[in-house]
Amino acid sequence: MTYSTLLSDAIWTPILGGLLVLAVGDRRAGAARWLALLVSLVTFAVTIPLFTGFDTHTAAMQFSERVAWIPALNIFYHLGIDGISLWFILLTSFLTVLVIIGSWRNVQERVAQFMAAFLIMEGMMIGVFCALDAILFYVFWEGMLIPMFLIIGVWGGPRRVYATIKFFLYTFLGSVLMLVALLYLYFHSGDSFSLLAFQKTPLGMTAQILIFLALFLAFAVKIPMWPVHTWLPDAHVEAPTGGSVILAAVMLKMGAYGFLRLSLPIVPDASHRLAWLMVALSLIAIIYVALVAIVQEDMKKLIAYSSVAHMGFVTLGFFMFDGVAIEGGIIQMLSHGFISAAMFFCVGVLYDRMHTRNIKAYGGVVNVMPIFAALMMLFAMGNVGLPGTSGFVGEFMVVLGTYQVSPWAAILAATGLITGASYTLWLFKRVIFGGIAHPEVAGLKDLDGREMFVLGALAASTLLLGLWPAPFLDIVHSSVQHLVTQVSLSKIPV
Amino acid sequence: MNSFLTHWIFALPEIWVLTMACVVLLADLYWGERLRDLASVLTMLTLVGATVLTIFEMGQRGTAFAGLFVLDSFTNVAELFSYLAVLVVVLYSKRYLVDRGIYRGEVFVLLLFALLGIMVMVSGGNLLSVYLGLELLALSQYALVAFYRDSVVATEAGLKYFVLGALASGLLLYGMSLLYGLTGTLDVRNIAGALVNVAAGNLVLVFAIVFVVAGIAFKLGAAPFHMWLPDVYQGAPTVVTTFLASAPKIGAFALVIRLLVDGGYGMLESWQQIFVALSLASLVIGNVIAIAQQNIKRMLAYSTVGHVGFLSLGIVAGTEAGLASAFFYTVVYVLMSLAGFGMILLLSRAGFEAERIDDFKGLAQRKPWYAFLMLIIMFSMAGVPPTVGFYAKLAVFQAVISAGYVWLAVIGVLLAVIGAFYYLRVVKVMYFDKADAEAGIIVRDDLASTVLSINSLALLMLGILPGPLMAFCFYAMRGMM
């Protein structure tokens, strides 16, 4: 295995670049924007070689880096990625570029701080997906809360303070017990914080269940799963567009990633034992939360609830312990990354023009914004899971994999597809179609070049993943097979 | 003859500080009117000199003056951090004292005597010398708190501190006398040897330990012995509060090391149980009551009680790694409270104390840099990575889990979340609220503000690379058991 610093570059380029943007200052907003764009592009460029140089035939960690970090506590700066992490790193660096372009005009206050917060957060999110040391993982995981806390609190809507404190305390509370679990694991893995060592540590059933629950709390809050999802609608509604995009597209994925990287391989027996609970919660998310989404008046809130429902498919797929279902879950995560980002951008486009997210204020937008309507149509179809879009691939694979294990769960999950179609299409109909309902709508201008670029890039990604998922699946395949083997072996000491 | 010289060489930093304290007192008397900075500059020179002497002694080990004085790695490291803390206080203090007309030599003399007290506690190998150091520190502190005579609250705080402090000293002394009666010796190491022959359930010994621990808990500020802390922190001039919240905590921690570890390590199980209770009480009382505070000095006082609860977790573990992590927590706490109170100092001016939380409203718009520094301080106190406060909590949690107290760690992390709320409130006020028209924060950029920037950024830098500082604290504890 060759030594490379690519992962460190991907983590530290945006963080240091973010500090540089901060140094430029809010007074020179233009310079700050361009520098932020440059940094995000460089970061994206740095992450490309991870893809081109990736070996799809092995499930081992690639691009590994391991340096002693805090010797007194045996903590290492240990990075490495496998097929599961790779896509999320690329997703993060790709979306950050789009967020910076998308926030170009509609953020006018404290521009440098805004851009810097996104870049620093990008570095930390990439860090979460690379970290192989439990404490390093935890540091990135928690550290990310600070910039997000500020993004919602400073640039958010009217109830931003309530929303951001709720967001912070909710996720913080979820995470701290994970820390206790990680420390507990340290003493049973032969004094090591390596996640790979944790995966080999034998553990009794009681310990496994307690660890599973501690990790579950952290990840379930982040995903978020029903019933700990209540922070999400508030956070989304109040967050600025860029914040919502990153929150939905990347942050939610970290919870699901945590299940794959920590829960399943570290406590496989408890995962099996408690799979019924996870499946039940996932199905409630898919069915009940989707019904909640239907009745929302606020577009962002509707999409937020739809995120919870879509993430239900992800967790459902994971806890089938079946290769197809898990791969489906991963594709669903990616797909949701593109589509939810696009949906929030679409709402942002409308909000910038009308300054309201209330569905009733719209109607007949297609008459004045045909290009926008066409693009949003595509994303709405993706959200519904229409074949040809990425949404179909993930949900189909999950339902297919689930059917082999538990037909009833698959049937219930499939009803979620129908509710998903109802709320998305109804939203689309009320906002886009019909006659022009309000005089303000008549004055709307169609997309400008910048918005077109952002939505166009996301549309291309959605279609690419939908029409030709093979390259995406190739990358995750070996790692998922390895994971399926790991989770099928009992770790209870005989 | 050679050994006679060694005694004096071992105690060279203490002798230097004592001499210089007298020099500052006299020099200020003669030239203080004309050279107003003389006392503070001489104090800084004293601290630099002491640092050099202590570094020169690094690595040496031994006892001097018939066991009254102990030199080991803990002595060195704890003294170095104490110098640093006092130096930072001196650097912060000038403008605050000038604005209030109390920029006088006595402040610095008292600081030096207090430091000497800490040093004697840190290096004491005998109940007498430890107690002597403690009293020297305490008396200097009483005088410092009440020093600002024109302020009614400061005088009141001084009196409260004196009465309660004297009571605590009495408790400690009573415990010491019981120990003496039981073992017939004042030498800490001989006590440890003699205690081997005392039955674990011996009632006198139990009383002795309870009294000693109560005295230590008072000095640390652990609940339920924390009653003095909010009033004194709030009432004392902020310069003095900054000092109270820094170096003396290292001194109080030295009491744990010298009395309980050096002397009573054989009785680990007895005092471990008391610290479990102290830790729980401090965590709950400190973190919950801090939520209700409107005065930031008082809030930080309750947060101190909470921090003491966390560092006590390391003491509960009782292992070398546990005590090292508790020591690391103490050092980190000192750095954080120096920065926190330093910020209040810097934002205050003549006739205005920036001590209401509302005074920080809209700071991010008016002074983005200072708001950013305060943000780091608050997140560090809350223990959110990547600030150094997180690693302090991590280390003590790791220690307490290794000792088998998983439930205590669970309670600890949950109270850390409650604690996060009131730190977040300060960030919220700074970043999300609009500035009041009348909130009159003016910051002058000077030496103190540069030091504050370094102090606060250190919390972030040490959070990214905590290895060396932690290794240094672990080095201090090596071979202490």
Automatic annotation (TrEMBL), chain A:
In this entry, which stretches build a coiled coil? none
Q: Name one Pfam family in it.
A: Proton_antipo_M
GO cellular component entries: endomembrane system; membrane
Where is this protein localized, as stated in its record? Endomembrane system; Membrane
Q: Which residues cross the membrane?
A: 6-25, 34-54, 84-104, 111-129, 135-155, 167-187, 207-232, 244-262, 274-295, 302-321, 333-351, 363-386, 406-428, 452-470
Q: Does the keyword S-adenosyl-L-methionine apply?
A: no
What GO molecular function terms would the record report?
NADH dehydrogenase (ubiquinone) activity; NADH dehydrogenase activity; ubiquinone binding
Q: Which InterPro entries match?
A: NADH_Q_OxRdtase_chainM/4, NADH_UbQ_OxRdtase, ND/Mrp_TM
Q: Where is the NADH:quinone oxidoreductase/Mrp antiporter transmembrane domain?
A: 131-415
Q: Which UniProt keywords apply?
A: Membrane, Oxidoreductase, Transmembrane, Transmembrane helix
**Source organism superkingdom:** Bacteria
The catalytic activity of this protein is classed by the Enzyme Commission as: 1.6.5.11
Provide the topology term for how it sits in the membrane. Multi-pass membrane protein
PANTHER family hit by this protein:
NADH-UBIQUINONE OXIDOREDUCTASE CHAIN 4
UniProt lists the family membership as follows: Belongs to the complex I subunit 4 family.
Q: What name is this protein filed under?
A: NADH-quinone oxidoreductase subunit M
Q: Which organism is it from?
A: Acidithiobacillus ferrianus
From TrEMBL, chain B:
Q: Which GO terms describe its cellular component?
A: endomembrane system; plasma membrane
> What parts of the sequence cross the membrane?
6-31, 38-56, 68-91, 103-122, 128-149, 161-182, 194-218, 239-261, 273-292, 299-317, 323-348, 369-392, 404-424, 457-477
Bilayer topology term: Multi-pass membrane protein
* GO process annotations (BP): ATP synthesis coupled electron transport
**Keyword set for this entry?**
Cell membrane, Membrane, NAD, Oxidoreductase, Quinone, Translocase, Transmembrane, Transmembrane helix, Transport, Ubiquinone
| Entry annotated with the keyword Membrane | yes
What EC numbers are recorded for this enzyme?
7.1.1.-
The NADH:quinone oxidoreductase/Mrp antiporter transmembrane domain, residue ranges: 125-419
What is the first-listed, main subcellular location in coarse terms? membrane
* Alphabetical list of Pfam families matching this protein: Proton_antipo_M
UniProt catalytic activity: a quinone + NADH + 5 H(+)(in) = a quinol + NAD(+) + 4 H(+)(out)
Which locations, inside or outside the cell, does it occupy? Cell membrane; Endomembrane system; Membrane
The EC class name is translocase
Q: Does the keyword Ribosomal protein apply?
A: no
Query: Which GO terms fall under molecular function for this chain's record?
Result: NADH dehydrogenase (quinone) (non-electrogenic) activity; NADH dehydrogenase (ubiquinone) activity; quinone binding
Q: Which family does it belong to?
A: Belongs to the complex I subunit 2 family.
Summarize the subunit comment: NDH-1 is composed of 14 different subunits. Subunits NuoA, H, J, K, L, M, N constitute the membrane sector of the complex.
**Tell me, what does this protein do in biology?**
NDH-1 shuttles electrons from NADH, via FMN and iron-sulfur (Fe-S) centers, to quinones in the respiratory chain. The immediate electron acceptor for the enzyme in this species is believed to be ubiquinone. Couples the redox reaction to proton translocation (for every two electrons transferred, four hydrogen ions are translocated across the cytoplasmic membrane), and thus conserves the redox energy in a proton gradient.
Q: What is the protein's name according to its record? A: NADH-quinone oxidoreductase subunit N
Species of provenance? Acidithiobacillus ferrianus
